[in-house]
Design goal:
The protein is 71% helix and 0% strand. It is an all-alpha fold and 212 residues long. It has one domain: Serine Threonine Protein Phosphatase 5, Tetratricopeptide repeat (Alpha Horseshoe), CATH 1.25.40.340. The longest helix has 21 residues. The protein starts with 7 loop residues before the first helix and ends with a helix. Bound molecules: adenosine-5'-diphosphate and magnesium ion.
């Protein structure tokens, strides 16, 4: 897989716009089982990243991910700020001095997701963003092993993200604010799972357009 750092501004823009477009729906999800601030938290982070995007495009991927992670940690706030921040900081660390082919990217993303698990003391099945991030990491790793064509890798990632996001609806929340609701947390999609899915699908769309 060929990675072009100059794509970063388009990727950031795509995420920014998918969050804007779905702001009402995601806010409603976080209001149902959280405190309703998830979108405004992310919007703060995206505003900071948009402002940095030209600068980020000049960096190598490892440094760019590290910087994105630091920005998200300071700008986003809430549980999701430290978790999304951790994802990117860990990816930056794992990517240091590595050529970025699909195999390497799968490992790097996997390291990022492992860091989120540790940070949140959470795993799959707890009704969080990890129910999207973990299946996406698994899909990537499997497709890297099988040397699947890039267009299919991207389609599989998007599919895994959507199935993972939907799977949170019937789950009992055992982490984060939603866990305070216990059984009443069931029946609502987790807001962080929804934004992870939206962002991953937006990234996939840009990458499919430019790389395949
Ligand atoms: P807060 O919950 O502090 O208001 P946000 O609303 O920005 O923060 O983010 C909430 C989202 O963060 C949840 O929907 C969930 O996906 C994710 N989340 C919360 N706690 C954890 C955790 N321990 N591990 C993984 N993800 C978590
Ligand atoms: Mg919240």
């Amino acid at each position: 897989m060929q990675f072009v750092p100059t794509l970063l501004p388009s990727l950031i823009q795509a995420i920014n716009s998918v969050i804007e477009t779905n702001a009402e729906e995601v806010t409603a999800l976080d209001q149902a089982i959280g405190d309703g601030d998830h979108v405004t938290n992310l919007q703060r982070g995206m505003k900071a990243l948009v402002a940095q995007s030209d600068e980020l495009a000049q960096l190598d991927w490892a440094t760019a991910w590290q910087k994105i992670g630091m920005t998200l940690m300071t700008a986003v706030g809430g549980a999701s700020g430290s978790l999304y921040g951790t994802l990117f900081v860990a990816m930056g660390k794992a990517a240091r001095d590595r050529a970025l082919d699909l195999q390497a990217f799968a490992e790097i993303f996997g390291s990022g997701v492992d860091a989120v698990k540790q940070r949140g003391k959470a795993d799959a099945g707890e009704k969080t963003m990890l129910d999207v991030l973990i299946p996406v990491a698994v899909s990537l790793r499997q497709d890297a092993v099988d040397s699947v064509a890039l267009a299919d890798v991207l389609a599989n990632i998007a599919g895994a993200a959507i199935v993972g996001m939907e799977s949170t609806r019937d789950m009992l929340a055992t982490k984060g604010r939603a866990s305070f609701l216990e059984e009443r947390s069931r029946g609502h999609i987790d807001a962080g799972a929804k934004t992870s899915q939206l962002m991953i699908c937006a990234l996939v769309e840009v990458l499919a357009e430019h790389l395949t």
